[in-house]
Amino acid sequence: MQSRSGVSDKSKQGQSARLQARRCLGLSGNSLGLVLVFLFQVLWMQPAFATEQRFVTIGTGGVTGVYYPIGTATCRLVNTGRAEHGLRCSAESTLGSIANLNQIRAGVFEFGFMQSDWQKHAYRGTSAFEASGPFQQLRRVLSLHSEIATIVVRDESSFETFNDLKGSRVSVGRKGSGSAASWDALSSALGWTETDLNGLADLHQSELAEALCSGRIDAYFVLIGHPARLIEETADQCNIRLLGLDQSISENLNGDGPSYTPQTIPSSLYGLSSDTPSLGVTASLVTTSDMPEDVVETVVRTVYANLERLSELHPALSNLKADDLVSLDKDVPLHPGALKFFQEQGLVVHD
């Protein structure tokens, strides 16, 4: 309803309320307006601040390996607490160590899983990373399980040693994987020639069991955590043996810093007649020095708090303990965010 002046009763009531507010607050009309504008801006902007998120991506590996399930599980656990820390995480399937490192260096990934030998080479700019030069911004975050050089052949084959495989059809992994790069380093350390490498193949891991047992390949080489489903699946399809590696080879591989350590694959894991001596590295999570400390600490804290749950994801992680997260490898510096958390937990850090 409007009065004769053209002002509605409702408008008059609003004006009366504003006047009453000014009187109560002791404010002039202009001052009250400024206060109301300020309050509106604060209330309007508050949800944006409350929901602000930071995003990180973890490079993992093939979906049949260990890196992918632990990467996806870590991100899922990080995301459950994003209301508290504002961190949102996604995991990407990749070819593995070398691919992850290249993506981190290019700024595509913030974190990535990789073998400890290749993180050392990347940091120093050696071996596969000689052309790209040292990546001295690389930082360790945490370590996981051991990955052992594993060579699988059919039981009836005549192969007895690694060098017997010269010129044979051996699948060594996709380019960009840690396994393929480690094969190159291993064969080079043993003096293999181009002719010796003529039979190499790069089958996907999901093809290896069938390819070996059907005779399409003579052997396959992987750096893998044990027990491994891949080896179990192969043993289910045909009788197999594992070829050992002379542990003295590590002297040629390690150069001026430890990368490969003596390892043994127990015969009981796959029903074999004897243990298999070999060499191994450690699976690690890495990032760069540019990554904020609180982000790294959040990721490490999440893994640490859910260690029991994560150890159930894959048989190779079944014996993972808190102490294992702290790498003894000094080749690449530990990120300050990880160091801070490990110190708070009283874990020994050799940095």
Structure overview:
- The chain is α/β, with parallel strands linked by helices.
- It has one domain: Periplasmic binding protein-like II (D-Maltodextrin-Binding Protein, domain 2), CATH 3.40.190.10.
- It has 13 helices and ten strands.
- Strands 1, 2, 3, 4, 5, 6, 7, 8, 9 and 10 form a ten-stranded mixed sheet that branches.
- α3 crosses α11, α8 packs parallel to α9 and α11 crosses α13.
- The longest helix is centred in the first third of the chain and has 22 residues.
- The radius of gyration is 29 Å and the shape is globular.
- The termini are far apart.
- The N terminus is likely disordered.
Would you identify the CATH architecture? 3-Layer(aba) Sandwich
Secondary-structure element string:
HHEHHEHEHEEHEHEHEHEEHHH
Count of discrete structural domains: 1
* Alpha plus pi helix count: 13
**How large is the share of residues in beta strands?**
15-25%
Write the topology of this structure.
Layout lengths: L8 H17 L3 H22 L3 E6 L7 H14 L1 H4 L1 E6 L4 H9 L5 E5 H9 L13 E17 L15 E2 L6 H12 L10 E2 L3 H10 L4 E6 L4 H9 L2 E4 L6 H5 L6 E5 L10 E13 L4 H13 L1 H4 L25 H9 L7
Parallel strand pairs: 1-2, 1-3, 5-6, 5-7
Antiparallel strand pairs: 3-10, 4-7, 4-8, 4-10, 9-10
